[in-house]
Amino acid sequence: MQEEEKHISSTDDTDDTKKKKGKSILETIREIDEKEAQREAEEEARIRAIRAERERREKEEYAKKIQQERIELIRLKQGVITESDTIHEEKEEKPKLPFWKKVGNFFYHNKWWLGITTALVAIFTFLIVDYFSKVKPDLIQSCRAIPQRWRHIWNSSPTMKTATARFRWTSTPSPSPTTSAKTTTTPAMPPSSPPR
């Protein structure tokens, strides 16, 4: 019985030691993570506060500087002072470009206008060259020769010298259904020899 009591008491001791061990490894890791997160949050809050303070100081300094420059400008405009120590006129110097860079800069800034102008000049040049180098067809040349032949005929014939003879036209009668539908109109031709 004593052995059983010893055995029972030893099991009770082990239960007590288990209870005394406390937290498991996972719980301790969680606690450590929470403490680290808390420290990081505090550090982040401290850094934010420092940044906010620095930005506030910079804004105040900038506002003071602007206010001083305004006062200086007012003094300059009113003529109280002639030159300012804080405000300096800065003249921007234009860089001196070589010739080819100037040409490249011109083409870069005006490429659309140059393209449109070049296209219009090309079109008008083509139209003008085409107009003046156009070969005149034989029909037009023969039409220009017709008045000269008629003038010769009219001057040589006594019947064609009168105004009525010059404007007299002959035409073929209207076609019948059996003949072709083509009608021709010709000017009156002078007789080859005078009538007797």
Shape: elongated
Mean pLDDT: 75
Which strand order spans the largest sheet, edge to edge or round the barrel?
Answer: 1-2
| Helix share bin | 55-70%
Largest sheet at a glance? 2 strands, antiparallel
Helical/strand content category: mainly alpha
**How far apart are the first and last residues' alpha carbons, in Å?**
183 Å
How would you describe what is shown here?
The chain is mainly α. 66% of the residues lie in helices and 3% in strands. It contains six helices and two strands. Strands 1-2 form a two-stranded antiparallel sheet. The longest helix has 54 residues, at 25-78. It is elongated and about 150 Å long.
Characteristic key phrases:
mainly alpha; 2 strands; 196 residues; 66% helix; two-stranded antiparallel sheet; elongated
Strand-helix topology:
Elements: H1 2-21, H2 25-78, H3 99-109, H4 111-132, H5 138-156, H6 163-166, E1 169-171, E2 185-187
Antiparallel strand pairs: 1-2
